[in-house]
Amino acid sequence: MGRGGGVAARLKDVAERAGVSVRTVSNVVSNAPAVAPDTRARVRRAIDELGYRPNLAARNLRQGRTGLIGLAIPEIHSPYFGELAGLLVEAARERGWTLLIEQTAGSAERELEFLSGRASNTLDGMAISPWAIGTEQLRRHTGGTPLVVLGESDPQGAADHVVIDNVAAAREMTSHLLESGRTRVAAVGSQPHLGNGTAALRLRGMHEALAAAGRTIDPALEVPVASLHREEGRRAMGRLLDHGSPPDAVFCFSDELALGAVYEAKRRGLDVPGDVAVAGFDDIEDGRYATPGLTTISPRKDQIAASTLQCLADRVYGRLDHLPARRITVPHRLVVRESTGR
Amino acid sequence: MGRGGGVAARLKDVAERAGVSVRTVSNVVSNAPAVAPDTRARVRRAIDELGYRPNLAARNLRQGRTGLIGLAIPEIHSPYFGELAGLLVEAARERGWTLLIEQTAGSAERELEFLSGRASNTLDGMAISPWAIGTEQLRRHTGGTPLVVLGESDPQGAADHVVIDNVAAAREMTSHLLESGRTRVAAVGSQPHLGNGTAALRLRGMHEALAAAGRTIDPALEVPVASLHREEGRRAMGRLLDHGSPPDAVFCFSDELALGAVYEAKRRGLDVPGDVAVAGFDDIEDGRYATPGLTTISPRKDQIAASTLQCLADRVYGRLDHLPARRITVPHRLVVRESTGR
DNA sequence: CACGAAGCATGCAACGTTGCAATAGGCGCG
DNA sequence: CGCGCCTATTGCAACGTTGCATGCTTCGTG
């Protein structure tokens, strides 16, 4: 029986056509060594003629692997997460994996659903950039599926962890602003209610730099936000400018916040950087083409992606299965553009 | 045997614990009607106690479905495709599907690889936003897996097709520019070498509007681009401004091109919209927060996503299996902001 | 010439699930 | 009281693949 029409060919069909056993075809497909050259050629031809493609469901069932890696991020269309997701898709592809993206919309419920949901047997590995949940909830991850945590929210040994040095980065940015002559540096982006501790670290780095320069810390210049979107940055800048003695520099904890802040400053007729310097964080593409070009912290996103997949590969294929969780710090650099110039 | 430790529970384990057959557990899991209420309750309890989750690989193998939909777009991190991908992920999720995103980087090779690659048996359905390939290559799609084509490149019956009326949209935008007093309208974004015919349609719409207003068409004001990115928009604007008699309005075929164009105009000390009006296409978030706010064409992206999944659902589950391919036109609207104001 | 090794090919079983057909028990009706 | 029908439950087989063990050659060596 040749299984006519559009029905997908199976190993059995190829075997019949090539006049060998199913097992031999399987050996050819999986590049097993013990196959005679002419047999291999004959099988290859049959495969081409029938357009055979392995049935992944069957392979997965047999091997207990799916070839799928899950990624949970707050939203795909945000510039930062979009760029990161794109890099992760490529990195996964290079390793023969397929990346599957889940959006959590920054909701704790959906983040937890991702961690406990399909994980158990649909995915070979998972990566999450947590937003609402923190260390406590990540620690509950019981290891069934390898997990990599991106960004803050230290899983404390419950999973591998890829980060940048947020404290140092914020320190560098703050120092840059102070060294270029700014005296009242505001911070936009603290998020006191979130599990994700990123903002707290950046605030700490900023405080360290202020202290090192002998400046006092003015709590009125630290504006919390509900999200890292442009609209929040715009609102925050508005509040700062309405303040009795407004800042001459604003350090936003994301480029999007910074773009919103710049928008509001310009809307009010202020010059950036003349009247107020604005700096961001993430180095998204928009920042490069904004006027003025946005000064920012640029994390090596490509290395974040590479490290994430390396961690997963080590746990899925390697013998690092029961080694203690790793913590990988990816480098970053300060990119100075016009928005903080003189 | 209870399969201790972290090993995933199977139907068999649940069955033993609940004192029923494997088949009955399966019936409970799939909400089959013929199960006595107390049996159902007992099985449910066992499921919870063991933390049972169905093994999708096995289910897929048995049913011939995977629950996966593939999406191929040029790049995730572009604002337009990022927003679209996010909406599609949500729409798929609502229908119990998982969307898997493939990046083609606008390469014909990778687009074709997507169409013929894993499709045959890993995906329940596919959607592609073609860039380099055109009608000819799409027509070769032989229907194994349901396919939806997004944007131009009419598959001519080989697949369902979701579009906006690019000709009408470009006509509306051009008329808007002419009506607000502009006389020399340039077009940035034609892509003569591409299979994807979107740019050609927008150019046609523009010509129609020019003709309707009794204007002549100046080929020197039509600038081709290699991509739809900001950098290309910037370059194109540079070329137009170096031209002997520069335009007083520039219609860019994407918002990103427009943002690049605005950047270059401002860099040269020109006022937008005072000296030159700039309009885009796509209505990406950046355009809303740019200064000046970007006039654009806003396609109903949510409807594109919804229609795409509706088409796929009809073919995968429904009885529309062998109905002729559909073509769905999604509405759009002209959004006037400051970049074309007076 | 016999024997082991090496190279190649094969058959069987199992992964966890669900479609199909069949069974056991309960009930109403003739 | 017995027949048939309906409900609840069950067993068997199969989806397409690969791990394991084994069989069949052929060749080299003592």
Automatic annotation (TrEMBL), chains A, B:
Keywords for the protein's UniProt record, in alphabetical order? DNA-binding, Transcription, Transcription regulation
Record organism:
Actinacidiphila guanduensis
Q: Which PROSITE patterns match?
A: HTH_LACI_1, HTH_LACI_2
SMART domains named among the record's database cross-references: HTH_LACI (SM00354)
Example GO molecular function: transcription cis-regulatory region binding
Does the keyword field hold rRNA processing?
A: no
Record flagged with keyword DNA damage? no
High-level lineage: Bacteria, Bacillati, Actinomycetota, Actinomycetes, Kitasatosporales
Span of domain HTH lacI-type: 9-63
Name of this protein? Transcriptional regulator, LacI family
> Which Pfam family, just one, is annotated for this protein?
LacI
